[in-house]
């Protein structure tokens, strides 16, 4: 006797009609209420909006520090912080290169009992993420002057994707698992569409 719950996986501003967790007891943290999926529990989720400015990284990191007190292994937290830095920096330097400084970048972090998810939405033109990642993995060395961000994110995260959303933005999704959930509750927090 489960409920069908619509999960917004692509953007804080749109709904995905094709991604449901069905027939399970569900708990989610939404505006002060706690919900869960089986033994998977969302410990904290937060959305942060900033502008296209390299100096805004200080505010992003200060906001992300609010997740450090959760039961996340310190090594995992540091790896996710590094992935967040690289993802935000890429949005500012590349995706928003020709856009105004007041162009928003939305960042959402969700911590569950098994993983830390980061979503970074940009307003840039997008690109073929898989092709670029493969090229960077083949050509980037520790001595390269730039271009290490995608390689770093792919090394520290379990999942890294970059998809266009229906609202004209792009979402960089980074997931780092730190515990194994029971098979009946394993769920991808990003539908991959």
Question: What features would you highlight for this structure?
Answer:
4 helices, disordered N terminus, disordered C terminus, two-stranded antiparallel sheet, 193 residues, six-stranded antiparallel β-sheet
Question: Could you explain how this protein is built, in words?
Answer:
This protein has one domain (43-183): Heat Shock Protein 90 (2-Layer Sandwich). The chain is built from four helices and eight strands. The chain has helices spanning 57-64, 74-95, 129-139, 149-156; strands at 3-6, 20-24, 36-37, 40-51, 104-112, 115-122, 159-164, 170-177. The strands form two sheets. The protein has a six-stranded antiparallel β-sheet with strand order 3-4-5-6-8-7. Strands 1-2 form a two-stranded antiparallel ribbon. Strand 7 (159-164) and strand 8 (170-177) form a beta hairpin. The longest helix is centred in the middle third of the chain and has 22 residues, at 74-95. It is globular, with a radius of gyration of 17 Å.
Summarize the entry for a quick read.
By secondary structure, the protein is an alpha+beta fold. The chain has helices at residues 57-64, 74-95, 129-139, 149-156; strands spanning 3-6, 20-24, 36-37, 40-51, 104-112, 115-122, 159-164, 170-177. The strands form two sheets. It has a six-stranded antiparallel beta sheet with strand order 3-4-5-6-8-7. Strands 1-2 form a two-stranded antiparallel ribbon.
